Amino acid sequence: MYKKILVPLDMEERSLNARTTAVAEDLSEHYGASITALSAIPKLGDNPLVASYFPAGAAKKAYDEACKDFRKLIDTQFAKPENVDCVIVEGSPRKVIVKYVKEHGIDLVVMRARKHDISKVLLGSNSLHVAEHTPCSVLIVRP
Q: Which CATH number covers residue 25?
């Protein structure tokens, strides 16, 4: 049923990822699906004013560091990290997730709901946006 599972992860809230990664691995094993873990980082070069405050090469260095950190996160969060592809994309999390799903034929997105927040009673803003704008199923895991 599912062949490609996308698991968006927040590198800042690592403690909230454990249930999501466990669910994704269970589904992957059950369906024989591949897993891609994705994280979005801010795009420094989009705003020339902001970019002017950083030295040349800062964006590349930040991207390279994020890739290393994300691989370490995957190695600690997944039971079988060798079976997980790692993708870092620059931009808004909700936009890059939807774009990645559409461009890569993802069958299922497994993502966590936001931590309890009074402004988002049912779902976090990113999970709601992804659920509404992707052509595939979205499984939202409560923390």
A: 3.40.50.620
